[in-house]
Amino acid sequence: MRTSSLFILAALIAGPALAQTAPLQLFKVVGPRDDVTIGVTAAELDAMGSGPGVERLARKLVADGQVTAWRYTVGRAPDGSTRYGAAGKVAILRNETLRIEPYAAALPVAPPPAN
Predict the structure, then answer these.
(1) Do strands 66-76 and 35-41 pair parallel, antiparallel, or not at all (unpaired)?
(2) Which residues of 83-115 are buried (b: 16+ CB within 10 A; e: fewer)?
(3) Long-range contacts: 66-69, Cβ < 8 Å, 24+?
(4) Do 97 and 31 meet the contact criterion of CB atoms below 8 Å apart?
(5) Whose CB among 14, 53, 56, 115 lies 3.0–4.6 Å from 48's, allowing a Cys bridge?
(6) Nearest to residue 70, comparing CAs of 23, 113, 22?
(7) pLDDT tens track for 53-100
């Protein structure tokens, strides 16, 4: 009984950290009026250069003036469980962005739809 309790506790603590090592990373983009959670795939991040994901995303935003990404929201999976899922593409504008921070999801994260 004690071993299974420790395993469950370890899974709950490590769950959000493990979600960020997946092929998709979530970021919270904070603007003057609201914030949005976006998902960037590993391939998209690789195309942005080297370094931590948040720095790559910030460099891309400064260089290009905007970044297009999948907006992620909490919703229901087909099996009825709660998860983060892509809710459409959004364009993040440089002049409307105050802060970008990595976001560790406490729920499972679905991959973005295939293009």
Answers:
(1) antiparallel
(2) ebbbeeeeebeeeebeebeebebebebbebeee
(3) 66/91, 66/92, 66/93, 66/94, 67/91, 67/92, 68/92, 69/38, 69/39, 69/40, 69/44
(4) yes
(5) 56
(6) 113
(7) 999 999 999 999 999 999 999 999 999 999 999 999 999 999 989 999
Q: What are the domain boundaries of the chain? A: 2-103
Could you tell me the pTM of the whole model? 0.77
Amino acid at 38: I
Residue 42: how many other CB atoms lie within 10 Å: 13
The residue among 6, 4, 2, 26 whose CA lies nearest residue 108 is 26
Decide: helix, strand or coil at residue 60.
helix
Contacts for 53 with CB less than 8 Å, ≥ 6 apart: 25, 27, 40, 45, 102
